[in-house]
Every structure is written in structure tokens, then in C-alpha cells.
TrEMBL record:
It holds the Pfam family zf-Tnp_2. Residues 240-281 form the PiggyBac transposable element-derived protein 4 C-terminal zinc-finger domain. This is Uncharacterized protein. It comes from Cryptotermes secundus. InterPro entries: PGBD (IPR029526), PGBD4_Znf_C (IPR032718). Residues 1-179 form the PiggyBac transposable element-derived protein domain.
Length: 286
């Protein structure tokens, strides 16, 4: 991947668009190997397809009908099609397919034989989708599915700084890739559960790191209760209170028997006010 910063400087001898140049930059490692590249309308153009073919890369993808090099006669103003109509124009190895369904669809390709012109509809009057359109949808569907999975549990938030937006997107992609690796190893967790467990593990690691921080910290001095991470939370209600006579839970874990009247208001466990109360609320495992 590469980050697009808007209009980028091109060499004086290159009369290409910035998106055209980015695609040529990204395929440098695979040029000459006979790959097939599926692209969307944001990048595709006749000039790009010709350049990629010189690199032995076949292309297929939707295209805007007003791109430079597109034939004038297939535009809506020049040709009014009915539902199910297919019009094809060929120039060398490059084909343009104009298919009419609910909307006009334009496909640019040099890897499939061009479909026949005509009107193709089933018995119910529905437009029959050409094979080249179906194959393009299948391959582009993986990209669409990836975007949907990233956005389903995305952590990105609105921000005016593009660097933050990029960081959150990369983090979402990293989490998705980790989940796909988990599934490839016969993992049984759902996408949602994977996210939940990941967040819980990160919180626990951060909690343990906060406990091991030395009392003398650099920079601005912290408040006296900074190490009591559970007590720091606003309205947490983890406060000592009098209750029934019960054995201190921390002492019991350490195989000591001590009865106490004090307990944690929220946790509802008996604790010694000195030492045990702090240990219970700062140590993940006592």
C-alpha cells in the first residue's frame, strides 16, 4: 500500500494522472509475472490498462464513461439502452462493455473475450448479467467484504487529522488480519468474540504494567491514589464499609485465617483495611 497525498509531482515526460502513477508504483514487484489485476473505477482508464499490459498484467474493472480514451458512442447521451442491453467496443486487446440493468455499468478489460451485443433477459424480464460482470463482482467482492469486516467493529473515530485516521485504519486492518490468521488455524471464535478477548487482554496487560510502575515517576507528580487503578475510575464505588464478620478473602488465598468486619462496598468481599484492600484492587492475581 501507499498513502495518496493528492496531486503528486510527476516527471515532465509522464502525462499520467496521480492515481495512474500510484498503480504503476504498486505493481513493480509483480510486473512481468502474468498476474491479473481487478481495479475499481477510481483507478481504471484505457491508458492504465495499456501500460499494465506492457508489464504483462491483465486488467478488469469498472470505469467512468468520461475517462480519457473511452469511446464517445457508448455514452448515455449518444446511446439509450433498454434493460438487458449489452454493447461492446473493441480496440486492440482492450474491450469496453456497456451493460444496462437498473443503472448503466461500464467495464474495461483485456483478459476476457468480449460478450456478444444484444438484449438478454430471462423469462421474468430481469436483465441477465454477463459473465465478465459476474467474475469482476466475485473478485472485487473480497475487497468489499474486507471493508465491511473492518468497519463492523472498527475503532476509528472522527478526527480532523488524517494521520490519526490512517493509524486507526491500519490498526483495524491489523486486527482483521490477526482474526483471519486465527481462522486459518482452525479457530472457532467469532469476529466479535475475537475483538472482545483482544480488548480484555490489552486491558489486563496495561493493568499489570501500571502496577509494576515505580513509585517515583518522571514528569508531573501523580495523585496519591494513582496506583489504585480500580479506585481511580469515577463512580466506581470500591470503598471500604462495615458488614458481617467474615474471613478476609486475600488472607484466605494466602492460607491465613483472619475474620474482619470490613468489606469492599462494590465487590462484596471481606478485606483487611490495611494491605489486603489495596492488594485486592491493584493486583490482577493476588
Amino acid at each position: 500500500m501507499t498513502v495518496y497525498f493528492g496531486k503528486q509531482r510527476q516527471l515532465a515526460t509522464e502525462k499520467i494522472t496521480p492515481t495512474h502513477g500510484i498503480v504503476l508504483q504498486l505493481i513493480r514487484r509483480v510486473e512481468g509475472s502474468g498476474h491479473k489485476l481487478y481495479i475499481d473505477s477510481y483507478f481504471s482508464s484505457p491508458a492504465l490498462c495499456d501500460d499494465l499490459l506492457e508489464c504483462k498484467i491483465n486488467t478488469c474493472g469498472t470505469v467512468h464513461n468520461d475517462r480519457r480514451g473511452m469511446p464517445q458512442e457508448i455514452r448515455p447521451k449518444s446511446m439509450k439502452l433498454k434493460k438487458g442491453d449489452i454493447v461492446t467496443r473493441v480496440k486492440g486487446n482492450l474491450s469496453v462493455v456497456h451493460w444496462k440493468d437498473k443503472h448503466d455499468v461500464y467495464l474495461l478489460k483485456n483478459m476476457h473475450p468480449p460478450p456478444l451485443d444484444g438484449n438478454f433477459r430471462d423469462e421474468c424480464g430481469r436483465a441477465i448479467k454477463p459473465h465478465v460482470i459476474e467474475e469482476n463482482n466475485v473478485h472485487m467482492g473480497f475487497v468489499d467484504k474486507s471493508d465491511r469486516m473492518v468497519n463492523r467493529y472498527g475503532i476509528a473515530r472522527r478526527t480532523r487529522k488524517w494521520m490519526k485516521k490512517l493509524f486507526f485504519h491500519l490498526l483495524d486492518m491489523t486486527i482483521l488480519n490477526a482474526y483471519l490468521l486465527h481462522k486459518s488455524c482452525d479457530g472457532k471464535m467469532t469476529h466479535k468474540k475475537f475483538h472482545k478477548i483482544l480488548v480484555c487482554d490489552l486491558i489486563l496487560q496495561s493493568h499489570e504494567a501500571n502496577i509494576t510502575v515505580s513509585d517515583v515517576s518522571r514528569g508531573r507528580p501523580s495523585s496519591s491514589g494513582a496506583q489504585l487503578s480500580r479506585l481511580e475510575v469515577k463512580h466506581s464505588k470500591h470503598w471500604p464499609a462495615k458488614g458481617k464478620q467474615r474471613h478476609c478473602l486475600v488472607c484466605s488465598i494466602n492460607k491465613k485465617s483472619r475474620s474482619r468486619l470490613f468489606c469492599c462496598k462494590k465487590c462484596d468481599v471481606a478485606l483487611c483495611v490495611v494491605d489486603c484492600f489495596e492488594k485486592w484492587h491493584t493486583h490482577v492475581r493476588v
